[in-house]
Amino acid sequence: MAEESTNSAAGASSEQQGPSMAVQHVYLKDASFEAPSGLELGQAEGNPDMNMNLSQRTNQIDENRWEVILTVTLTAKQGEKTAFVCEVQYGGLFQFGGFSEEQLPYVINVLCPNTLYPYVRTQIASLVTAGGFYLAPMQPINFEAIFRQRMEQAQQQGEQPPAESSPS
Question: Looking at the domain 19-156, which fold is it?
Answer without folding.
Answer: Bacterial Protein-export protein SecB (3.10.420)
